[in-house]
């Protein structure tokens, strides 16, 4: 009877393991995104949000919001980023979901993103609040992103997202808060730390040297962000690799006069592969060790059972078989879902111009400094007498950027 009950428990556990099936990465039509067909990509993301895997909702909401932003639908973008942020910002997980993720596939749970993805969602949300004329809410979103960048569960890491610190400082200035200089100092420290730990960056970034300078702020998203993949004996390591894209820098003219070249404030590839300067490998390594140990221990006990007699043989067979089954059915595979439409870097150029309308032309450059004509963009910037105007450009065909209303 004892053997029957114990065996039944093992088979029940096996059933639980099988329930924890993985959820695959949404097949975002990246070719259309890179080709400028944002309406088609948005339609895909919206359909996935309605009919696709619920566990992937935050991914497709972020993609949908990016498309809205590129097409000038700032308020639609803000709502979608806000919904995604609410999912990504929650660390709670249902008990059944947690069990499936522990024993089954890591990707059987709701996608909440890696720290850098949470930080990028916060950046976009802050920008859309700025477009709405709410620098206080924009600063709050930046602070949320800073926390996400440096805290994982009960552990704290060096926050090294200079973009969010700098942006929070600018929002404090617009909001009349007294802590702007503290944020600017943190931005300098974050930029220095990141570059010391292999981040791409620029020495003496103008926006960090003179953080309050400029009433026309141009942000540039260059390139295509990294791809997540599984590595290791049991595919337990979640790693990132860069993806090729020609655009590495931007330059701008205002009213026909060159105003400078952009400087890197955030290296998204670096943020993806590190956490506080530490390489983000071994994410599921403990689970892989458990899988291997269970298989080996189960095989050893079964071998011993073959040479034993009586109750000892039965016990060794039950325990060995259970461990072997547990090891074989446990999935150590890392969760390789990721936000596929992020840029490789975010760069900035801030200039002082007289109030009023200005003709702004942006050109993206390749690694040799050559202009990429198909990515050139033009807009009119209406700069208020008080306050400032912000624009966000992406190194993609003809995206539209909307100015920030005067706070």
Topology:
Layout: H1 2-19, H2 30-35, H3 38-51, H4 57-70, H5 74-88, H6 95-103, H7 115-131, H8 135-150, E1 151-152, E2 155-156, H9 162-175, H10 180-196, H11 206-209, E3 216-222, E4 227-231, E5 237-241, E6 249-254, E7 257-261, E8 263-267, H12 268-273, E9 274-275, E10 278-279, H13 285-307, H14 310-329, E11 345-351, E12 356-365, E13 377-383, E14 389-394
Parallel strand pairs: 3-14
Antiparallel strand pairs: 1-2, 3-11, 4-5, 6-7, 6-12, 8-11, 9-10, 12-13
Helix pairs in contact: 1-14, 3-4, 4-5, 5-7, 7-8, 8-9, 9-10, 13-14
Report on this structure.
With 407 residues, this protein is of the alpha+beta class. It folds into two domains: 14-284 and 332-394, Tetratricopeptide repeat domain (Serine Threonine Protein Phosphatase 5, Tetratricopeptide repeat, Alpha Horseshoe); 286-329. Helices cover 47% and strands 17% of the residues. It contains 14 helices and 14 strands. Helix 1 (2-19) packs parallel to helix 14, helix 4 (57-70) runs antiparallel to helix 5 (74-88) and helix 7 packs antiparallel against helix 8 (135-150). Residues 1-20, 90-108 and 282-291 have low confidence and may be disordered.
Characteristic key phrases:
disordered N terminus, Serine Threonine Protein Phosphatase 5, Tetratricopeptide repeat, 407 residues, alpha+beta, four-stranded mixed sheet
